Amino acid sequence: MRDFFRQIGRLFLREVKLVATNHSLLLTLLLAPVVYAFFYGSIYQYKVEEKVLLAVADDDKSELSRAFIQQMNHLQTVSVEMAGDLPDAQEKMYYGHCMGYIYLPAGLQKKILALQQGDIVLAVNGARFLPSSELAGSLTTLALTVGAGVRLKYNEAQGLNTKMAMQETQPVNLDYRPLYNTRLSYGAFLLPGILALILQQILLIGTCESVAYEKETGNVPLVVQMGGGSLSVTLWGKGLFYMLLFLCYAFFFLTVNFSTLEVPFRGHPGDVALLFVLFFFTLIPMGFWLGSMFPNQLVAAQMMVFSTYPIFLIAGYAWPYDSLPLPLQWVSSMVPTTPFMRVYQSIVQSGGTLKDNYATVLHLLALSAFYTLLALLGLRRLYKRQQSISL
Amino acid sequence: MRTIIHIAIREWKRIVSLPEYYLVLLVLPPAISFLYGFMYDKQMASDQPVAIWDEARSPLSRQFTFLLEETESIHITTQVDNEVTLQKLIQQGKIQAAVHFPKDMDAHIKSRQPVYITLYTNAASMVTAKLIYRDAAKVLITAGSGVILQKLVKTGMPSGKAMALVQPIKLDTYILYNPQYNYQKYLVPGLIAVGLQMMIIMATILALNLEIKKGTFYELQELAGNSASNILLGKGLAYLSVGWLHYILATCIVYPFFAQGHIGGSFALFILFSVLIMACISIGMMVSAILNDVMVACDVGLFYTSPTFVFSGFTFPRWAMPWYDQYYAWLMPFTPFIEGFYKTYFMELPLHYAYRELAQLLLYIVVTFPIALFFLQHKLNKPRLQHA
């Protein structure tokens, strides 16, 4: 047992030295997590987009149209930019000066006063997803509110008192309650996931590069011998450095970054800590296994850069898992990010517990065992190959 | 000119023989393009699990439930009888939303008492929450308008006038260029474009320093007649031709088959894409000429290209970012490209609408190419001086 701890300790110290002397590993593991976390985090600092530019072509030029434009400008999501006429409004959108346009035709006020339906045209640039959906949503609400106002006046004119007129105006109402992200902000939705993704990718890149470097320099037999010939000791002796370092990062992210970016944390810290330990127990062997397949450190770094977006996109965080094609659901289930993000999102954002997600936690445990096996096989392959070359 | 072509051919040979190049430039582009295309094959997130909390248990609540089930994004999977269970099911990931019909709903509607139908969504998953809200709101607002219309008609009002009172201002909304908010049509072209430009930068960042590492730099120097411009133009030509292959892959195969794009794109898109690739090559060459250590150069490339997509404003608008992030975004050529891409690809506008973006892209070349030239020429002159 003493030998075991001594071997683990020696491998741990060797990994510290390796990282300290390898510029790339040093930059990746010590600088990138902190810089990225603040860097990416700051993008979503304001969380929601406000004042989306909307061109307005007002051919009615009436009291009602002016009041409507004023109401639009008061909306949090809209900033009005007046256009001379409809073609001018369209041109503004084509040049990217605004995200859509609204057209108030001549005779609008006249029609509404005559109790006829008035038509308004809203065109939004659907190529820009978020701003256009915000504009469409806000202006639909505004049109419904104005409509309710007109009905209220009509009901009062019919002799109903204000209370009864109000009740008649809108008999069925929608009470919308977005849970766990009440402002429906993009930042609150994305930030927890992005911070976890940064940790994951840097850990993967670091472990991958480390193993690829050992492979490139022919040091695998030496490392295994330092582990007393045991592949498991080699894996966890080297891996211990990454486990400790990334647990510190996780703690830092969940405390400092969450508070500076004002990301709410609704779960129990113990649950998240345990989840991260389990996650890193899966990622470290995964990184070792991947690293054992690349010819050198450079290719390992290059390939891992391009894994970030695909892994994030198939993990079911930004796009629902059930909406992926079946073969990609299988692939997604083999990536530790998928079960991790599911449990992490439930705990951090919705206030769930590990117990609530026990099936997904078992999924992550199974992946941990699977990648440990692959990592050991990868190390054995490298060990045998390099040992035979040295002989 | 002949020298430049020889260097370009030599570079192509390196591209197909060195894993640092062929993996990044030839293997990854089709792999990632098809993955992205296939990933969003369902185009929209549909049939999300939703619970019903029906305290009304009336014909009207059943009718509303039926209408909700008919929508694209909602699939009623379970019944609940209180808010605690509802929240638990959301935390366990079993449902994404729930709709509550209050007790005595029908009676209240008839007795002029306003009724509130509550929609709960798991807004921590914003994509599904927004889709469910959009569909549920459409159903419930239409249903609410139907109730008003019936009431007005019952008073003897002509249906036309009643309709005008139900909806005095009719907002005709046109979602241009992507009316269904199809995720595949929207995300796939942008994701592929960002991936391709990242690949060009990550490869060109090794164009000169990898020659030093592999000991082939002097051979290149001789072939180029000690001219930095010959090396940069020759190598640049090879990478530009790779970029054109990527363009063919994207616009002739992936965009038409996976993102409803036109085969071959358009002249405007081709010009814009070519200038983007030239800007990426120029930036990559500059870094490669300055940094001799390939791993450090690779790290610089990693750090520079990784945030491109989020900073470009493609998914989250730039104007909603803090001012320093908005400035940082302009350090990357993908930022002006994406503005031009909206115009030339999604909106199919003529090139003159994207002149500003083209000029901005050219600026990256104007700034970085001379720097690359200076550093490389300096490097080329060094061994000659030592030799002398």
UniProtKB/TrEMBL annotation, chain A:
What are the transmembrane regions? 21-43, 184-205, 240-260, 272-291, 298-319, 358-379
Localization per Swiss-Prot or TrEMBL: Cell membrane
Q: Which residues form the ABC-2 type transporter transmembrane domain?
A: 24-377
Q: How does it sit in the membrane?
A: Multi-pass membrane protein
Entry GO MF terms: ABC-type transporter activity
InterPro entries in alphabetical order: ABC-2_transporter_component, ABC2_TM
Record bears the keyword Membrane? yes
Q: Name one GO cellular component term.
A: plasma membrane
Name this polypeptide is given: ABC-2 type transport system permease protein
Tell me the lineage of the source organism: Bacteria, Pseudomonadati, Bacteroidota, Chitinophagia, Chitinophagales
From TrEMBL, chain B:
Compartment list? Cell membrane
Q: Which UniProt keywords apply?
A: Cell membrane, Membrane, Transmembrane, Transmembrane helix
Q: Which domain of life is it from?
A: Bacteria
Q: How does it sit in the membrane?
A: Multi-pass membrane protein
ABC-2 type transporter transmembrane domain: residues covered: 24-374
Transmembrane stretches, start-end: 21-39, 186-208, 237-258, 264-287, 294-315, 358-376
Signal sequence region = none
Major site of localization recorded for this protein: membrane
Q: Any idea what this protein is called?
A: ABC-2 type transport system permease protein
Q: What is the lineage of its organism?
A: Bacteria, Pseudomonadati, Bacteroidota, Chitinophagia, Chitinophagales
